[in-house]
Write a structure and sequence with these properties.
Family: Belongs to the class-II aminoacyl-tRNA synthetase family.
Number of helices: 22
Organism: Hapsidospora chrysogenum (strain ATCC 11550 / CBS 779.69 / DSM 880 / IAM 14645 / JCM 23072 / IMI 49137) (Acremonium chrysogenum)
GO cellular component, one term: mitochondrion
Shape: globular
CATH topology of the largest domain: Threonyl-tRNA Synthetase, Chain A, domain 2
Number of domains: 4
Radius of gyration: 31 Å
Main location: cytoplasm
CATH architecture of the largest domain: 2-Layer Sandwich
GO biological process, one term: threonyl-tRNA aminoacylation
Bound molecules: zinc ion
Helix content: 25-40%
CATH superfamily of the largest domain: Threonyl-trna Synthetase, Chain A, domain 2
CATH class of the largest domain: Alpha Beta
Strand content: 15-25%
Oligomer: single chain
Length: 767
């Protein structure tokens, strides 16, 4: 992510569109509104600064001057009849430099006009109020559209920015829409040591709502680079963006709403009043801004260097205020309910409550797994090992540290070194592995492989380390030390389809156990790639066939992301949806033509095997009779750490029996039943179930209550009657009707039923 006022891709979020757009740009409500007439009584209550800072006035003066010139230029443009072709093929007539997308929408229908957030003119995002310049294709996007959401939240960031300037007189840095969490933020500098407090949130919301009420239009203005530098001379942040983004001798744009004029390429909603529901959510301190690309298995094509704010890690602290907005109030209320539910499910909180794991300053980003957390970890591990046996994967173990030579061969040294922990041993540089692939290539090349050995499905639970920036670490979702259910499939080109179908089946089986739904996307050959076009085409075709086949089986769909593959092979993105319908990327299926070449991997081909022609750029042409394997990087769970974080929130800490670290609690009704309780414990424990017994001095009711809070799936209450009949009384966590004394269940029957529940890995907590 580059620091810019431009946009980042936001995530899908809920929200019904309903808005009102003016047919032509309204006038800015009351020139210098903030100066003379802030929101009612605002100054009195200390909501805003008593007067606007000098830099704001300077900006406005310059804006007026250039705007006058600009308006004259536009007025002088030739008015010609133009044809506007709509998405459905229909054509509308208009006048160049006069007709706007907004007026076209209004002409079609009021409801369409009200629904529309932004226009797409010949594929370019275009303000609804910006005149069309020539005949064009026009699409109208509503809030449900991904790009429209970005524009909507981006526009909302301006509102927040204006409120911040008016309250603090601060300098705005970067204010993009965001995907995760959905919404937007604005980074602020020059706060004179003031820390944004909780009460500022309310104040900013009040000012923002007054800005929204004023329906300030977003006014677009083109300016030269020199004019931009003059306008923003007060801020080294904006100066930085201008120099980064605007080549000498070219123009860029600013947008004005109210007293705020911001360097921005736009576009925006027509006016601030389109933002019907607005909320300031969070304030955080960003002492060092460092942006990094998310990583996948294998090499990332885009080497995104660690970009410190203004290239300086010791830069002054910047404060980030985030918010959310919607085109209607109901959507905001729903979103707030969602946030409250998500907060309840927060895995860090549940991890602490259930004593699953913790973090400590002695090793940031590396999890201390407590006994109960380790149980979950191991259960997932066992699940994968079972699946591996069924599906013909073979487990290997490989080193954790390798000399830099290996990383040079794999290409990590050039592309990925900054994400690795490196150190000296006996005057040689080593790196801790961030992924298993290079080690697996070593295993392959060591093994004199023939076609009969393929496909070789090589699995490894090895410990991986990635040098995540300490400020980016976050619970289990972003860690430095983790393990994956990582595997590499080495196969022939002919085997790609069958192997990919096997991967899908694997995903389906495992995600089904968690109750996840998921979506598949194929990312194909990017502009820059290695290898042979024919092999790419063939591989992509096989992936398409495999996808078609699979989605038909599960009655689903897949999408294509043309040109979005890695430089070394096409990939399949797997998006998982949890119980709150949040999206995650866990699994990976990535074809790789690169590493096998770099490691000069080859196998003895079958006699009649039709081998693909060697790529022209292959650094290691194969001798006759040898084939080069294709490598498939794949993971289902991805990082165990991250997956456990996701599962904790997905289940809200109410683990399904098979995955639960606390399956059964035995509670004796009186101390003289302690022996029987212990005997029950030992019977179930011996069969591999996690069973505890509460022999403490609390009352029966208190013990049961504690067991419930700790989310034991079942609580066995044992009294004299149970002891005599060698039975238990079972309370089911998820079944209210079992919370009073019920039937006596013989021990063997209870054991059989629970073992079955565990073996079947059912989500439902039912015997
Ligand atoms: Zn903007
Ligand atoms: Zn890999």
């Amino acid at each position: 992510m580059a620091p810019d006022t431009a946009v980042d891709p936001p995530n899908a979020a809920e929200g019904a569109p309903a808005q009102e757009l003016p047919s032509r740009p309204a006038k800015q409500p009351k020139e210098k509104a903030a100066k003379e007439k802030p929101a009612k009584g605002a100054k009195k209550e200390g909501l805003e600064l008593p007067g606007l800072p000098e830099f704001i006035q300077h900006r406005l003066d310059l804006f007026h001057k250039i705007k006058a010139r600009n308006d004259a230029e536009i007025a002088a443009k030739p008015r010609e009849e133009i044809t506007i072709t709509l998405g459905n093929g229909k054509e509308e007539k208009g006048t160049s430099w006069e007709t706007t997308p907004g007026s076209i929408a209004r002409g079609i229908s009021k409801s369409l006009f009200e629904r529309t957030v932004i226009a797409l003119v010949d594929g370019e995002l275009w303000d609804l109020t910006r005149p069309l310049e020539k005949s064009c294709k026009l699409e109208l996007l509503d809030f449900e559209h991904k790009e429209a959401k970005k524009v909507f939240w981006h526009s909302s960031a301006h509102v927040l920015g204006e409120a911040c300037e008016r309250r603090f007189g601060c300098y705005l840095c970067n204010g993009p829409p965001t995907e995760d969490p959905p919404g937007f933020y604005y980074d602020m500098a020059n706060m004179d040591g003031r820390v944004v407090a909780e009460e500022d949130k309310k104040a900013l919301e009040t000012i923002s709502n007054s800005i929204i009420k004023e329906k300030q239009p977003f006014e677009r203005l083109e300016m030269t680079k020199d004019e931009l530098l003059e306008m923003f001379r007060y801020s080294k942040y904006k100066e930085y963006f201008i120099n980064q983004r605007v080549p000498d001798g070219t123009k860029s744009t600013v947008y004005r709403c109210g007293p705020l004029i911001d360097l921005c390429r736009g576009p925006h909603v027509p006016h601030t009043g389109n933002i019907k529901a607005f909320s300031v959510l969070k304030v955080s301190r960003v002492s060092q801004l460092k942006y990094r690309q998310d990583r996948d298995l294998g090499l990332t094509a885009d080497k995104n260097s660690a970009a410190y704010w203004l290239g300086n890690s010791d830069n002054e602290s910047v404060q980030r205020i985030s918010g959310i907005s919607f085109p209607d109030k109901k959507a905001l209320e729903e979103y707030k309910t969602f946030l409250a539910e998500a907060a309840k499910r927060n895995h860090r909180k549940i991890g602490q409550d259930q004593k699953l794991f913790f973090f400590d300053e002695v090793s940031p980003g590396s999890t201390f797994w407590l006994p109960h957390g380790t149980r979950i970890y191991n259960t997932l591990h066992t699940l994968m090992q079972e699946q591996y046996r069924k599906r013909g994967f073979q487990e290997v173990m490989s080193p954790n540290m390798y000399k830099s030579d290996l990383w040079k061969t794999s290409g990590h040294w050039g592309h990925y070194a900054e994400n690795m922990f490196t150190f000296e041993v006996e005057k040689e540089t080593f790196g801790l592995k961030p992924m298993n692939c290079p080690g697996h290539c070593k295993i392959f090349s060591h093994s004199d492989v023939t076609y009969k050995d393929l496909p070789w499905r090589m699995a490894d639970f090895g410990v991986l380390h990635r040098n995540e920036f300490s400020g980016a670490l976050s619970g289990l979702t972003r860690v430095r030390r983790f393990q994956q259910d990582d595997a590499h499939i080495f196969c022939t080109v002919d085997q790609i389809r069958q192997e990919i179908e096997g991967c899908f089946d694997f995903l389906y089986a495992v995600y089904g156990l968690f109750g996840f739904t998921f979506k598949l996307k194929l990312s194909t050959r990017p502009e820059k790639f290695i290898g042979d076009v024919a092999i790419w085409d063939m591989a992509e075709d096989k992936l398409r066939q495999a996808l078609d086949n699979f989605v038909e089986k599960i009655n689903s769909k897949w999408e294509e992301n043309p040109g979005d593959g890695a430089f070394y092979g096409p990939k399949i993105d797997i998006t998982v949806y949890d119980a709150l319908r949040r999206e995650f990327q866990c699994g990976t299926i990535q074809l790789d033509f690169n590493l096998p070449r770099r490691f000069k991997l080859r196998y003895v081909a079958g006699k009649d095997e039709k081998l693909p022609e060697a790529a022209a750029d292959d650094p290691d042409p194969l001798p006759q009779g040898y084939g080069r394997p294709v490598m498939i990087h794949r993971a289902v769970l991805g990082s165990f750490e991250r997956m456990i974080g996701i599962l904790t929130e997905h289940f809200a800490g109410k683990w399904p029996f098979w995955l639960s670290p606390r399956q059964i609690l035995v509670v004796p009704v009186m101390p003289n039943l302690n022996d029987y309780a212990k005997e029950v414990q030992s019977i179930f424990n011996d069969k591999g179930l996690f069973i505890d017994v509460d022999l403490g001095s609390n009352t029966l009711q208190k013990k049961i209550r504690t067991g419930q809070l700790e989310q034991y799936n079942f609580i066995f209450v044992v009294g004299a009657e149970e002891e005599k009949s060698r039975t238990v009384n079972i309370r089911n966590r998820d079944d209210q009707s079992t919370q009073a004394k019920g039937d006596l269940v013989p021990l063997q029957e209870a054991l059989d039923k629970l073992l079955k529940l565990k073996e079947e890995r059912r989500i439902e907590n039912r015997l």
